[in-house]
Amino acid sequence: MWRSPIKRLDMYMLRNFLGLFVLTLVICVFILLMQFVWLHVRDLVGKGVELSVLAEFFVYAVASVVPLALPLAVLLASLITFGNLGEQVELTAMKAAGISLFRIMRPLVVAILMICLGAFYFSNSILPVSQVKLWTLIFSLRQKSPELDIPEGEFYDGIHGFKIYVRHKDAKRAMLYDLMIYDYSKGFRDATVMVADSGKIVFTDDKKYLVLHLYSGESFENIDRKQQRATGTTKNIPYRRETYAEKKLLIEFDSDLNRMDESILADQHVSKDTRQLIHSIDSVHSLSMEKGAEQSRLMVDARYLGREHHSVDDTERILQANEQRRAEAESRGENWQARYNPDSLFASLTMSEKERVLKVAMDRANSQKDQIDYNAVVLDDYQRYIRRHEVELHRKFTLAFACLIFFFIGAPLGAIIRKGGLGTPVIISVVMFIVYYIIDNTGYKMAREALWPCWAGMWLSSFVLLPIGIFLTYKAATDSALFNPEAWAKLLEPIKKKLHLQND
User: Fold this and answer.
1) Domains of the chain: which residue ranges?
2) Which residues contact 13 (CB under 8 A, 6 or more apart)?
3) CA-CA-CA-CA torsion for 276, 40, 28, 434, nearest 10 degrees?
């Protein structure tokens, strides 16, 4: 059965691109994963974490870096794909057969649109769940006690309230020799110092306590004066000394990983999908508007209408009495404002009365300032909550849209430079991705700090890179020699002639 060559061309392009896309995606995820693990290496090293917990951590960490790795993988795969086609003259042969660049790119555009939809679904449905589990696991690891590994020849402070010094260890017999232990668990004033010729440490069956066995040693304990009075001791004894042949200490040391409840992140922006984010933004925005209106009403009523020390009915009576006095004064032809001028009233007071009035005014002004500062803090908490949710809402769309933009940058750029492999495409991809990351991070910080609207900050990278993609696609479709040195030399030739004429 005869098959259309157009369909074979589509399959050929898809096969080349998708294979490179999967390979570059794995490489990008691995690089970003190593950077993420490096940031949290303190939470993993020295904790005695089981392999299953480490595997769980890496699975959730991979899910967290996938949205950032997707645009870079699309850029690199499209660059290599069209660079290989140009380098092997396949792209030229296709154009010579009458196939335009847009027709060559058509099956890949469909594939990229599917990748964008998949990226949005991943960011909206899978990423919130993985983020909750990842950060819950990280918080649990931070609370976990470190693995008990006492070094030789230096003090070990991995046990809370204790410092242990061991001169020598016998790993086969699990024995410690020449021990010195400082016990600060009861406070510095009640510290205890213990020395022993040898000892060993074992865990209890429930793994929540350490049993420290000490042999042939002494202990020195400070005696606080309150303890002396409580025990009836009257002599000035600075410490208590004890010599022992064998001594046991029970020390609390929970070595198990106690997982925190995932509900602590239930109201965080990273744990919500688009529907939940929109609902949270609307709810908190309405609450913020109501709180702001209530604070404004209370401020005006309490301060400017004189209701700070009066009830509503008393204030209404005062206002009605003032209006009645104003009407009587105007009927007699008197000036109400001149008669009740605050400056003249203040000038008529004695010095002590002026001081008292000024003190009352300053107290009320300071109280008003404190109330305004408190209201600003309350409303700022609402606004910060809204901004974080709006940033997360826009991020779910911008990451998916970045995949489409990077394809229309990488594909035409590969067709123009005609260099395949992992050399030039990798360098160009890294440079473009660094530019994208800087612009995107700048917009994110501007939106987070309320310097820009959230939509402007989060879509800044798209606004900048989209025109570049359109320009490169146009140049590639018109076979423009964008990176041809001879073309640039011809373009600069008139400028060189003018410079020579001026010099002559």
Assistant:
1) 5-144+394-435, 155-252, 273-390
2) 81, 104, 107, 108
3) 90
Strands 162-170 and 192-203: unpaired
Q: What is the DSSP string of 403-435?
A: HHHHHHHHHHHHHHH---TTSHHHHHHHHHHHH
Q: Model-level pTM greater than 0.85?
A: no
Paired tokens of 155: 């003090």
Q: Whose structure tokens read 């404002």?
A: 337
162-209 pLDDT, tens digit per residue, is 888 888 887 777 788 888 888 877 776 677 888 888 888 877 776 677
Q: Identify the residue whose tokens are 């204790």.
A: 162
Measured CA to CA, the distance from residue 197 to residue 216 in angstroms comes to: 6
In the 3-class helix/strand/coil scheme, how is 45-110 assigned residue by residue? CCCCCCHHHHHHHHHHHHHHHHHHHHHHHHHHHHHHHHHHHHHCCHHHHHHHCCCCHHHHHHHHHH
DSSP state of 146: P
The whole-number average pLDDT for the span 473-484 is 73
Give CA–CA dist 285/387, Å, rounded: 10
Of 244, 248, 228, nearest to 236 (Cα)?
228
Closest CA to 18 of 99, 118, 122: 118
Say if residue 342's pLDDT is above 70. no
Nearest residue to 426 (alpha-carbon basis) of 112, 66, 80: 80
How distant, in Å, are the alpha carbons of 73, 342, 369, 382 from that of 373? 48, 28, 6, 15
Task: Provide the β-strand partners of residue 163.
Answer: 182
pLDDT, tens digit (0-9, with 9 covering 90-100), for 318-328: 556 666 766 76
Phi, psi of 175 (to 5 degrees): -115, 150
> pLDDT, tens digit, for every residue of 94-148?
888 888 888 888 899 999 999 999 999 999 999 999 998 888 888 877 766 555 6
Of 208 and 437, more confident: 437
d(CA 486, CA 62): 46
3-state class of 210 per DSSP?
Answer: strand
Residue predicted with more confidence, 149 or 42: 42
